[in-house]
Amino acid sequence: VREDIVQAATRVFSRRGYHAASMAEIADEVGMRKPSLYHHVRKKEDLLFAIHERLIDELIDETMAVLSTSRNPEEKMREVLRVAVGLVARHRDGVTVFLRERRSVSGERWAELTVKRDLYEKMVGRVVSEGIADERFIDVPAAVATRAILGMANWSSMWFEPEGELAAESLADIFAQLALNGLIRR
Amino acid sequence: VREDIVQAATRVFSRRGYHAASMAEIADEVGMRKPSLYHHVRKKEDLLFAIHERLIDELIDETMAVLSTSRNPEEKMREVLRVAVGLVARHRDGVTVFLRERRSVSGERWAELTVKRDLYEKMVGRVVSEGIADERFIDVPAAVATRAILGMANWSSMWFEPEGELAAESLADIFAQLALNGLIRR
What we know:
- 2 copies of one chain form a homodimer.
- By secondary structure, chain A is mainly alpha-helical.
- Chain A is built from 9 helices and no strands.
- In chain A, helix 1 (2-16) packs across helix 4 (44-67), helix 1 (2-16) packs across helix 6 (92-100) and helix 7 crosses helix 8.
- The model of chain A has no long low-confidence stretch (mean pLDDT 91).
């Protein structure tokens, strides 16, 4: 039931925006009466938190798995992008909410999410730095290059249609081609 | 006065989100009483529309100027990115609102903005297609490459600090370096 509620909240937040969405709409979306919803969820913010936490945990786990292989920086970057685009493909509405509402909430437990976001960025930055140190990649500021590449992937949540003609796999390949061609020293 | 109101609304929408923001907060921000604000602005949506319209018009004008030069696709792309990053640097809060709230509103006059957004994307796509046709750029789907590159620039509104250490000019150069290195055929 909790899973269904989080899924329904994700769709409603994506469609309406977090602030505009009401618990009544979420109850409607899940096919439940409002009092029953409150039986499972104390407040709207808890749902936003659950959406964020799941996504960032999944992203970190999969990216960590890529980093711990013995591949070279190019191959790691290709896989890192595949993971990021895969997340958009599997959880498009969730990623939209995640990215759009990153400043909608504050308070102690959100600090934990900020730590995780920073950790993810650091992991990707590490791949870029390794490539620069190896002289495989061009000499650009690693943090800026990392954000440029992640921006490309993040932004895809705004236009990529998981059910459309372009497969997530192909999108990841094109991103990897552009990002790697962009990074690799000639 | 109208200019001050639009500026104040931009800051409030950026900070609070469009839906969460109230006309009272905007009146506060501009240092005006609410009835006086309503004297100048009929409703909150008009302010969101004004923010969107100014930005897209400025972006299109400047990008059009780049396109109408006789530069080659590489040089045009460098300038296109400079224009996009320049917009973020000059109007960071506005761009944040523009990108985050693109689906917050609907109705007839918003259709006009969608037409303009598509036009902008088409202009940038044209530079990419020219480069591919010339065999200067690698053979990637032009529309996807365009969105990848614009994503990089758009996303910078989420983290770039116009008052920070990294100058907008340097950011544009790094983006151009990555995007062009990424696009150019070896």
